[in-house]
Amino acid sequence: MERRRTPATPAPETDLEPEPVMSELSFHQLAGPSGACVLAVAGEADSDTAPALAIALDAALCGSPAPETLIVDCSGLRFCACAGLNELLRAHHAAAEAGVGFALATLSPQVARLLDLTGTRTVLEVLPTAPTLPTGKPQAPAQARPCTRVSSSRTAPAAKGVSQQVAELTAEAERQTSVNRWDLSAASTELARATATRLGEAVGSVDTQEALPGIERLERLREALAVVAVGTSHTHGQLAWFLARATLALTPVLRWRALIADQEHAFGTVVPTPEEFTDAENAVRHLQSVLACATTHGFATLQPVRRSL
For residue 160, what pLDDT is reported? Predict the structure, then answer.
């Protein structure tokens, strides 16, 4: 006897839409031994949550009393994108300016690989584990801060201009040189020289650039970004770190367009202002001057170049 299947009852239609998945970060700040502040970070540090990471890092650095060392515990950081790494590097630079030590601890495999790929492991101090208070010395309740969960809807701090980011990058290169942690090899010197030449060819003088139509200015800026990115892929160590940071600083040009487009087909791009064009072009000129000077006199001469721009 043939068995007949009973058709399944269709699910009732509803007006409910699936909730979008949002990246989140959680932070827990604790007092560590000997004046150290430990900031435990958990979740995903991407372009959505990077502003929240920046706020948490700034709050830890500006605490009262100010810490002697800030240690970022990354054991719960399951994913970190370049945007998150950029905030860690920014905090590292801010800590150095304030005379505060800065280190990462307990890296996940993904974060460790990101540092290796970008050449930033030589810049950031990495600890195998985050320190804790000695046994028998419990932490006072006032020193512990509740876990704060922040989504991407939180207001982001004001964005820095491209030129400012490049200036900060140069300052960090100066610091690395001052402690004898940066010395260009012959191969790196040749690559830096070639990169400087190509950047000079991509972006000319102020008068030349401002006379061009917007679409050509954008083409030249994207060419400069490509030059820096290609240079990053052809070297290792400190120069790779420097060029990778420069690439991150120039990435806003990828979101720009020079022609008016229908919003439905704009893919989130925006038309930059003349000031934004000039800011990015000045950053490229700065990079070109720094690399050219470094191949002639070494990175120890970067400070006079930066101050003159």
Answer: 65
- What is the pLDDT at residue 179? 63
Higher per-residue pLDDT: 170 or 209: 209
Cα–Cα dist 195/206, whole Å: 20
Kind of pairing between the strands at 148-151 and 24-31: antiparallel
Strand-pair partners of 142? none
17 contacts 125 by C-beta, under 8 angstroms: no
Q: What angle do CA 237, 238, 239 make, to 5 degrees?
A: 95
Which of the 8 DSSP states describes residue 124? S
Directed axis angle between helix 237-250 and helix 186-202, to 10°?
Answer: 20
Query: Which residue carries 């269709």 as its tokens?
Result: 10
- Strand-pair partners of 201: none
The arithmetic mean of pLDDT across residues 3-7, rounded, is: 49
Interatomic CA distance for residues 295 and 196, integer angstroms: 9
Amino acid at 31: A
User: For residues 218 and 207, what is the distance between their CA atoms, to the nearest angstrom?
Assistant: 16
The torsion angles phi and psi of 24, rounded to 5 degrees, stand at: -140, 150
DSSP 3-state assignment of 31? strand
Rounded to 5°, angle at Cα 181 from 245 and 242: 15
Q: How far apart are CA 128 and CA 131, in angstroms?
A: 9
